[in-house]
Amino acid sequence: MAYFGDKEINELLLGRISAGDFPSAVYLVGRGRDVCFSNSLGLAVVVPEEMTAASDTIYDLASLTKVLVTTLLAAVLVDRGQLQLDTPLCEILPVNSSSTNGRTTILELATHTSGLPAWKPLYLIADSREDVLARILAMEPERGQGVVYSDLNFILLASVIEELTGNRIDEAAADLVFRPLGLKDTCFCPSPELRRRIAASEEGNRFERETCHNEGYLEGEAALERADRWLRKALIWGEVHDGNAYFMSGVAGHAGLFSTAGDVFVLARQFLPDISSLLGPEACKLFSHNFTPQGAEDRSFGFQLASTKDSTAGSCLSPQSFGHLGFTGTSLWIDPARQATFILLTNRTHDHELPLVNINSVRRKFHDLACAAIERNS
To answer: How many angstroms separate the first and last alpha carbons of the chain?
Structure first.
């Protein structure tokens, strides 16, 4: 079935493509199980050759991995009674119960209230993928800061899932999510044969290298040698953009998932109680419940809530709507009141000099226009 885009959304995104914010955009807006409208615009690849974006273009979803894989799998385990929100890490992972990390709960990881730092260049700190867990567990969290969005929380949460399922996070996702849902274009570590369907990313890890330099991680010959090994300089196209996920063999709880807008829509429907085939209604309530009402940011289980000041939800989504962003230029918002899903995939890191463009204003406008289009066509 063919779907047609909304005229005003097309104009918005084409304008931002022309302005150089991102070279391509694929969007999909759905209600319930149905696609309302979708379209693909611009170039998925600009260099080394021009390739037009299509409805089945595969994007590096970056931090959407946190919700579409790690959060969803954790919720499945909660729904099955295999995991509880108040379970401390010391009951599952190899960490002392007297340590701060040992007392950290599953809910604190999922709401980013563990006190762990926002980011660390694990490829400069750890010796291997297996060593990453030990390095994070050895860090001393700063409790009492409220919400501090951190990739490390979801690397730990993925480790919990791996321990409980006995499978690496990509294998657990394939067994419990991807295959049951019949997804064909969703995976970690896409095969080389898929490369020409994948939107290209940054010319090397320039942003991460600059961040490492500014934060003092590149001092000394050993650090520079490790950086040269793990921070790529060639075009990143067909492999994960995130440096820590790349170091972890492309498979991590915070990044690494590749997918299409169509498959993301199937995954997004699993968070809606009247539609989900993987979760019961009680588990689905976790995603719209505000677990951090006194903080500067409203967080549910894995997601940010639209009630957060200056969220990218825009002005029309209901306050209990929940969403997530990806560094590469991706976003997903779900409005349970409308049973509506809003997917916008771009590759803003491709063919763009630093600094990269902050596209949050585009995301807000996209959601406002999409809501208006839904109302016009309902």
So the answer is: 19
- CA torsion sign, 90 to 270 to 7 to 3? positive
| Backbone φ and ψ of 184, nearest 5° | -110, -20
**Where are the domains positioned within the chain?**
68-181
Say if residues 326 and 96 touch (Cβ distance below 8 Å): no
Preceding peptide of 355 cis, ω within 30°: yes
> What pLDDT is stored for residue 295 in this prediction?
85
The pLDDT value recorded for residue 287 is: 98
pTM attached to this predicted model: 0.97
Q: How far is CA 191 from CA 194, 202, 249, in A?
A: 6, 19, 13
Q: Mean pLDDT, to the nearest integer, of 204-216?
A: 96
Q: Is the pLDDT of residue 84 over 90?
A: yes
Percent of the chain with pLDDT over 90: 96
What average pLDDT is seen over the chain? 96
Instruction: Give the integer Cα–Cα distance in Å for 5 and 346.
Output: 16
369, pLDDT greater than 50? yes
* β-bridge pairing 24-31 and 340-346: antiparallel
- For the purposes of burial, counting CB atoms within 10 Å of the CB of 158, is it exposed (0-12), middle (13-18) or buried (19 or more)? buried
| 2 confidence band (pLDDT: 50, 70, 90) | very low
CATH number, domain 68-181, options 3.40.50.20, 3.40.710.10, 2.40.10.120, 3.30.70.141: 3.40.710.10
